[in-house]
Fold this protein.
Amino acid sequence: MSYSPGLHVLGSIHSEQQQLLSVYQGLQTFIDERLSHYELNKLGDYYHSFDNAGFTGVVCLTESHIAFHTWPEHNYLTLDIYLSNYQKVNDEKSRALFEDCCAYFKATAVERTEVKR
């Protein structure tokens, strides 16, 4: 197939930053800033806090999505970034956004998988 719909980056991230893993508002602001920086188009987002147990969030983009789920009690989060190549190749933006999120959470260990769609 000559057309590649995009790059899907999946990660398991370990972090000792309990506050960052517990409260989504800082991440929400950070993601909005990164989306603007990378000129990505947000359609909407939804975040949900669990009682004393982290949060989940999804950001819908014209290019596809970003999703998070955190477990502060295990110093752990999962991250899912898929940016399609709707109007231009976004593979490097997918990788850069993943790295930005690792830096935001001050990752101590990262397991990463890339799937070329």
The chain has a mean pLDDT of 95. The domain at 6-116 is CATH 3.60.90.10 (S-adenosylmethionine decarboxylase).
